[in-house]
Amino acid sequence: MLWYLLYPFRGTTSAPSLNPDHPLRRVLTRYGIGVARNVATTLLIFVAISTTLLYPIPFLYTSDFASGASNLPHHVWTNAQPIKGALAVEPDVIMRSIWVHGSYMKALDRKVLLSALELQDTLLGPTTNFAPRQPSNSIFVKDPLKDLTVIERDTFHVVNGLTNQSWFFHSPLLYWLSDRDAIANDPNILSTVNEHKKQHTSVNVTLRHSVVFSGKRFEDRALVAADALVITLIHLRDSPVGRQWERKTAELATHVADKFDVYPNKNPHNLSSQLYEFQFLPISWQDSIMLALAYGVTFIYVIQNLSKLPAIKSRPGLILTVVAQIFVSIMSSFTVCAVLKIDLSHIPRAAYPIVIVSMSLENMLRLIKGVIATNLEDSTSNRIGVAFGKTTHVAFASVMEHIFLLWGISKLVTSGLSDFCAFLAIAIVFDFFYLSTFFLAVLSCEVRRSELSEIIEKSSSTRRNKRSSSDPMYPHSYQSLGMPTSTAPPRPSWVAAMLQGRVDVSTRIAGTIILLGFVVIAQWHFFENESMSQTFRRLVVPGSGGLVGGSNNLTAWNSGSTLHQARSPTSWLRIQDHETAQEVINVVKPLAHSYVARVYEPLVFVLKGSDRMPSVVERPFLPAVYDFVRHQSQPFFLTIVVLTAAMRIFVNFLLWDEMGEASDESDTAESLLSVKTLDQGHALDVALMTASPDGLVVSVGLDRWIRVWNVPFGGMSYLLSSQDAPSDVPFPVLALTIDDDSAWLAILSSYQVMLWNLEAKQWGPSIAIDLCGQKPEAFFFTPNQKSPFLHSLVVVRRNGTLVELWAETGETVDFPVCKSPLVCAIPLHSSVTANGTSAFSIITASRNGCIHRVTPVGGDGWISEEIKNQSKNNEEHATSLVGMPLFSAYLVVRHSSVDLVDLVTSQTLHTFMPVSPIKSRTLRYLYSARRQTQRGSPELSYFSLVYNSSATGNCVLQTYLPKDEDGSIMFVPDEASTSGTGCSWYEARQAIKEVPNPGVWEALPNGCIIGVRQTDDDASDISLKSKNAKSATGVDAATTGTGSFRRRGLNVLASIDAATNAPAKKAHGRGTWEAWSISSVIDHGIGSDDDEDGNDDGYKGDNGYGRNAVAADGTSAATDKNYVARPLGVDQGELLVTEAGPIVCVGAGTVALGLGAAIKIITMGHERYGSPADMLEAAAGQMMANSVGNRRRKNRSVQRN
């Protein structure tokens, strides 16, 4: 409701989202991660706290109001409320009373009791063994100023028939039958008082302690002291007994002045009065129907929302969790209300859960949807933490909003509803607490369990993305290429979407509406003679008459304020027992549910010589609380210990597998981006490196040493010995390569190729070669073996020729490739092509812009053919090439375009338009493949181009997404037709992000990017800024505003902003070396409830990656799950290094970086090293497992944290 009220000021009804670097969000995210990693501990804390709050309930509540405990709610509406400004209201009865005091809290002293009996007999006549029943109630009083005889008085008693002259009274002296001798000879007055607390008068009204005493003190459910004796006369309008009481109380002020101090002493003849309405209304069948409908609608609402969540198999568990949390919240609130003396007996017990349910569901559903919308690739703890960090501030704001609203309502309603508002406020706080502990822990278990995670991973987000046909995404310099655009389908109306079940009723306003509606209905029950509109007007219009506030209408009776009364008359009226009210109603208005009484200010009598100074301090809590502490402490703590221990065993049994997994997450959480240093291997800087997928790293230093490192075995290394070499190791080394089996290392110099056997650790044959004084463009082993021992080697020269070498025979053969000098050459081995065959080619690009494909011809050599069928928009020459072996394709990279070319047919499938000029030789790609169609064409969940901008130096992540959340991008030519859920490249949406000052980086097979950069000394925050824009479709579509779109439950922000096109600030001086990693190029945000309502001003998501401050202890304080960073931990020598060395990919998620004379091994998550064949197979499903597969396995030993 708060966000709707703020719409005129904010222009949107969506809840605000905190930036990832906001301190509050960072704290909440860390807390959520901590709870998810320590589920057992959190549940134990929950059990201990809930047991602490639930165990005392039977000892704090009772149906006996006279025992010092709270009164339980019943199936009735009860209230005692003042009526102000209602002069036309005729009271049903008149209540007059006298209070008799002795010393402070010593009203049960024998002298005080005998003095009170004297006053009672003076006012009413003799009352010893009071038995008013008479054979007739017909009598005539001749002189109204004359005292009534006993027979006349008793004849008018209501027990003889209800008339306008009837009367009856309450008095504690009836415990002794108003017998002076019984009082004087009673050996134990307290025992008599407690034994007769349920004694009935002649009209069946119970003489409860709350009625006949004021200022009571209880111990062990028994009365131990009282401050005043209360004698009350209740009579109808024309009662002669009432006139006699009124006349004699005025006379008593002067007649007993020598024995009592009388208050009010100024004018005891004219006592002030106040109209009160006492109500005891049983719940009606209309109320029962309304509550049944409310609970039924709530149940349907819960089922509807949970059925739309992809937690199919865990829905019963989630429902049980929701019910358990609401139950514990309500019961915990009952305990606190009892301790704080908040009376909850005014409202029917069936009404208490309904309001809490509606408010609690709001926060629960938001958190569940937030978890589902997080990155499926991330660990459970991170998913829970990110969702909690993104949603909890909204939940907290909702809690504060409702507390403030309840505080305001409590000032406008009856005292009974005011207490109910206090209960709701306490329950909301408890519900938020249990949401942050119990529900969060259980939800993390449900997400971690396979039955929920499988469904979540198989499901897409239930809400559609907002489409936009806004301005183009790219700079004007890239819009003139004439690319076709597509128009998104028109968005259905809100009504149509609602009828299709695609729009939910927002829970953000439902709880507030139910709260306000219930308050109006409850208030209406207390004014049953009014219409609903009059009751509503009474609430919202000040001064509209009648009840304006529960406690503000009480007449201030302060005549006895100097007496230090333990309880004032006004307070005494508020706590009157409602069952007594029912009994009085049965006497004065049979078959009615309420009566109006004119209550006169009591006349107070204080024995002369009494000490009214308080001898003890009034205890702040309910007496039953102190009884509980005194008698139940040991079993209470024993129960907590036993239940906590039992829950510990039970949780260990249920979460045995998950706890081990969570332990792995916890162990690696702080080292998610782990950095290891391989030093003492080189004396001078590392100049060249290569690596194999199974963890071997070969480094060449300026010290002319070549060293082999075994990363999986802790970085063990050895130096290539020159003793057994067939010749001196030639330096400088120009290139290194390792064969697919990790058996041979080839070392290329300007005139020789030498082979090293990695398995036998000895030198192999060497071959002479002539590079014509230039560095090679490519150096690699061929995948086809010409001999049973060694693959052949290929060197592609820059002059446009290649040479193939056979080490065993020493044979070399030269082949022409291109007449022009080359700028790039790549080997491309596709294991399966479109026609089901294997293909190996060498793709080259020359300075003149021509592209050649070189293929082997049996054993007879190589054939080079120029690719003629290139894109027409290729006025620029190619700067580099990137192979895509899993798709039998390659990328031709130019500064302002990237062509996707099929390897077999040489057809240009699509031309990508970068948002910024591409720096030469920096382009990489990432993708997520879903499956292959029957035609063999892959289907992509997303495809990303990653490159450095030559204009800004930033690392740009340009992601293509299907136009539909359940769709895919077809890896087919643009002109080919697509069907089903597939879309063409032109129809794909885009997301753009930039990483300032990226340094050196590498894209890895597991889908993450790892980089190393140097920051200034004063740059403690490492930021990853993104640009914001609305989603777009089409290759040359762009956006200039902000917005969001979602796919597979993930928010993806597309953006372009001129502000970030400024050159990145470079580090200068001695900066700090830092490793950073992005686990995905997609920003996974959380949708808002506005998406459910069909609003166009929905959740905007995060504007890029969050800032991640680096702590002093070397750990990362990253706040966004997609970006982590940590210092490299360089030593004194490495501090002088101003430029990072070579970087190579090792395994699926590890890079090796040369930094000075050391090698840094940087790993993202868990690394599994494998053979090249295994890595090729893993790359075949490169990101197929990235979004789904890695979470389908029960054993998630490689799950990233």
Automatic annotation (TrEMBL):
Write one Pfam family the protein is assigned to: Sterol-sensing
Question: Where in the cell?
Answer: Cytoplasmic vesicle, COPII-coated vesicle membrane; Endoplasmic reticulum; Golgi apparatus membrane
The segments carrying the WD repeats are 679-711
The SSD domain sits at 287-445
Among the GO molecular function terms of this UniProt record, one is: sterol binding
Keyword terms, alphabetized: Cholesterol metabolism, Cytoplasmic vesicle, Endoplasmic reticulum, Golgi apparatus, Lipid metabolism, Lipid-binding, Membrane, Repeat, Steroid metabolism, Sterol metabolism, Transmembrane, Transmembrane helix, WD repeat
Which PROSITE patterns does this entry report, sorted A to Z? SSD, WD_REPEATS_1, WD_REPEATS_2
- Chief subcellular site? membrane
Membrane-crossing residue ranges in chain numbering: 39-61, 289-306, 318-340, 392-409, 421-443, 509-527
- Matching InterPro entries: HMGCR/SNAP/NPC1-like_SSD, SCAP, SSD, WD40/YVTN_repeat-like_dom_sf, WD40_repeat_CS, WD40_rpt
Asked whether the UniProt record includes Magnesium among its keywords, one would answer no
Q: How does it sit in the membrane?
A: Multi-pass membrane protein
Mind naming one GO cellular-component term on file for this protein? Answer: ER to Golgi transport vesicle membrane
Q: Does the keyword Amino-acid biosynthesis apply?
A: no
GO terms of biological process kind: cholesterol metabolic process; regulation of cholesterol biosynthetic process; SREBP signaling pathway
Q: Which family does it belong to?
A: Belongs to the WD repeat SCAP family.
Q: What does this protein do?
A: Escort protein required for cholesterol as well as lipid homeostasis. Regulates export of the SCAP-SREBP complex from the endoplasmic reticulum to the Golgi upon low cholesterol, thereby regulating the processing of sterol regulatory element-binding proteins (SREBPs) SREBF1/SREBP1 and SREBF2/SREBP2. At high sterol concentrations, formation of a ternary complex with INSIG (INSIG1 or INSIG2) leads to mask the ER export signal in SCAP, promoting retention of the complex in the endoplasmic reticulum.
What protein name is recorded for this chain? Sterol regulatory element-binding protein cleavage-activating protein
Q: Which organism is it from?
A: Ophiostoma piceae (strain UAMH 11346)
The root-end lineage is: Eukaryota, Fungi, Dikarya, Ascomycota, Pezizomycotina
